[in-house]
Amino acid sequence: MADYIAFLRGINISGKNKVPMAELKLIFEQQGFDGVKTLLNSGNVIFSAESDSEAEVCQKIESALGARYDFDIPVVVMKKSIFIKM
């Protein structure tokens, strides 16, 4: 299992593209991710996934968000270990 950070761009800015953090957390959990934590109202999410592929995880998130919202949400996913090693 790998730890990740997802950055959702362009949400919750000036009342546009609203994504409630509780709803975002639920979407991630429904995709099978574990230990899901959202940070403030930023669209940043920390979680764990079985997959070791950032691209695969990112695609899974983008598909789930695309099915739920009628606006595009660009997503960047990075392994959490990148930040810890600094």
- Kindly report how far apart the N and C termini lie: 21 Å
Q: What is the overall number of helices?
A: 3
Major sheet characteristics: 4 strands, antiparallel
Oligomeric state of shown chains:
single chain
Beta-strand share of residues: 25-35%
Tell me the Rg in angstroms.
12 Å
Helix-strand sequence: EHEEHEH
Low-confidence stretches: none
Care to count the β-strands? 4
Question: What is the typical, i.e. mean, pLDDT?
Answer: 91
Largest sheet strand order: 2-3-1-4
- Indicate the percent of residues in helices: 25-40%
The coarse overall form would be globular
| Structural class estimated from helices and strands | alpha+beta
Architecture blueprint of SSEs:
Layout: E1 2-8, H1 21-30, E2 34-39, E3 44-49, H2 54-68, E4 75-79, H3 81-84
Antiparallel strand pairs: 1-3, 1-4, 2-3
Can you describe what's shown?
The chain has 86 residues and is an alpha+beta fold. It has three helices and four strands; from the N terminus they run E-H-E-E-H-E-H. A hairpin with a 4-residue loop joins strand 2 and strand 3. The mean pLDDT is 91.
Please name the defining characteristics of this protein.
alpha+beta; 4-stranded antiparallel sheet; globular
Give a short overview.
With 86 residues, this protein is α+β, with helices and mostly antiparallel strands.
